[in-house]
Amino acid sequence: MPVSLQLLSQFPLLRPLSREVLEPLSASMSLRSFARRAMVMAKDSPNFELGFLVEGRLQGIDFTVDGRGVGLYFVDPGDYFGELSVVDGQGASEFVVAAAKSTVAFLEARSARELISVHPELARAVMSRLAQRVRLVTAQRTLLGLANPFQRLCVLILQLPQQDGSVLNVPTHQEMAIMINASRETVTRAFQLLFLHKLLVREGNTLKLVQLQVLKDIAEGRADPPKA
């Protein structure tokens, strides 16, 4: 189904574009729905598209040589993905799966590439995003190099987007386990200790970082993880 102009205006990347540019764009885009855990974008797929998340949540993941999943990043509503393939014309370097029931608006890669090349503000935004991805990958490699999974979890918590000392839309224990290369049970036990010692407080889907400095000390190896 086509994508309305009202819906396109919700995506920060497209807001600088005029109505005259958005109208033909809306006619060429399509909306698709995905069940939780469904594959949204396959690694090395020959079909390149720029995806915009309308609702739900997506996770970029890859797999180690022994088949273990490693979480790379999340995509939240209003955000986009698939820009690397759009830019270089090669297959995606990771899989994107639905972490929740999701709706995605897709733009074919050729149209997306032409749009970026004609509008400098879009090109700057995409270049900034690609640089951010490189920084995230570097941080992820550093995180995975830590021997202690509790320490890795603290690093991940501090990396999640924060607002007023809280993490909003907290990932599930399974999603975080994939991000730090640990079992879901390990993550659950670690959170139990963090709550027990009041380093964190959970309020619905919000995580309040009550003792931020202690979390930083554990993440940076200056303090040992709390004991039961």
Strand content: 15-25%
What does the largest sheet look like? Answer: 4 strands, antiparallel
Radius of gyration: 19 Å
Mean pLDDT over the full residue set: 91
Shape: elongated
Low-confidence stretches: none
How does the helix and strand content classify structurally? alpha+beta
Tally of strands: 12
Topology-level CATH name of the largest domain: Jelly Rolls
What is the number of independent domains?
2
Instruction: Output the strand order for the largest sheet.
Output: 1-8-3-6
Compute the number of helices. Answer: 9
CATH second-level architecture of the largest domain? Sandwich
Structural descriptors:
single chain, 228 residues, alpha+beta, Jelly Rolls, Arc Repressor Mutant, subunit A, 2 domains, four-stranded antiparallel beta sheet, 12 strands, elongated
Write up what this structure looks like:
- The structure is a single chain.
- This protein is of the alpha+beta class and 228 residues long.
- It folds into two domains: 5-143, Jelly Rolls (Sandwich); 145-219, Winged helix-like DNA-binding domain superfamily/Winged helix DNA-binding domain (Arc Repressor Mutant, subunit A, Orthogonal Bundle).
- Helices cover 42% and strands 23% of the residues.
- It contains nine helices and twelve strands.
- The protein has helices at residues 5-8, 19-28, 83-88, 109-118, 120-144, 149-159, 173-180, 184-196, 212-219, and strands at 30-34, 39-41, 49-55, 58-63, 69-75, 80-81, 95-98, 102-108, 162-163, 166-167, 200-203, 206-209.
- The strands form three sheets. The protein has a four-stranded antiparallel beta sheet with strand order 1-8-3-6.
- Helix 4 crosses helix 5 and helix 6 packs across helix 7.
- The longest helix has 25 residues, at 120-144.
- The protein is elongated and about 60 Å long.
- The chain starts with a helix and ends in a 9-residue tail after the last helix.
- The mean pLDDT is 91.
